[in-house]
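[Protein data]
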Amino acid sequence: MSTWLIPISKNETQLRVGRLTKAHGLKGAIKLELFTDDPERRFVPGAVFTLQVPTTSPWHGKTLELAELRWYNGHPVGFFVGVPDRTAAESLAKAILWIDHDLSETTDEEDAWFDHQLVGLAVIRDGVRIGTMTQIDHLPAQDLLHVATVSGEVLVPFVKAIVPAVDVAGGTITVTPPPGLFEELPAADAADAPAGSAGSAAPDAAGSAADLPAPETLAE
């Protein structure tokens, strides 16, 4: 089972909304990496998160309640119930936060989707199905779509130039990839291909694709 989408029931799932990175100060605060475009709604006092931690962690099988979210120099910092000091905060480093989410929820924002809406969609190029979207990575530079193909997994930058259309109702994602992203180039062409574009290797996040505006995904 994928670690980022955990089914709970027919109409509900858990969505990954953040990761605790490291302790901040001495009073139990923890820096956060957010995986949501709506922190004002997801991270409110009283919000309860399911924790993804190793089985050896003292927090395994427990939940975490947010007491307060503050911003320091543009970075989110959380204060949580039952985390009174730096030692307790350090024991939560790298924990991933999940929330319960109703799969029937939709968004009216243009070019914005929840991750679970995209998983399983057919990936189409030139009218032909070439794979299935299986996962999304939310990286600082851009989002990456994992596409399962007959030749293996391909990582596709989720930018308009490469993913011009998403049709959730129709069950498709249309891609217009650069040469070499989904297939090996002939030796002569490979020498001229941009770094990271050959085969199923990960695209170079510093390449031109990273400079293009990405469609927004409501991961959570």
Remarks:
- Residues 5-102 form a domain with the Elongation Factor Tu (Ef-tu); domain 3 fold (CATH 2.40.30.60).
- The chain has two domains: 5-102, 112-217.
- The chain has four helices and 15 strands.
- The helical segments are 39-42, 86-90, 115-118, 187-190.
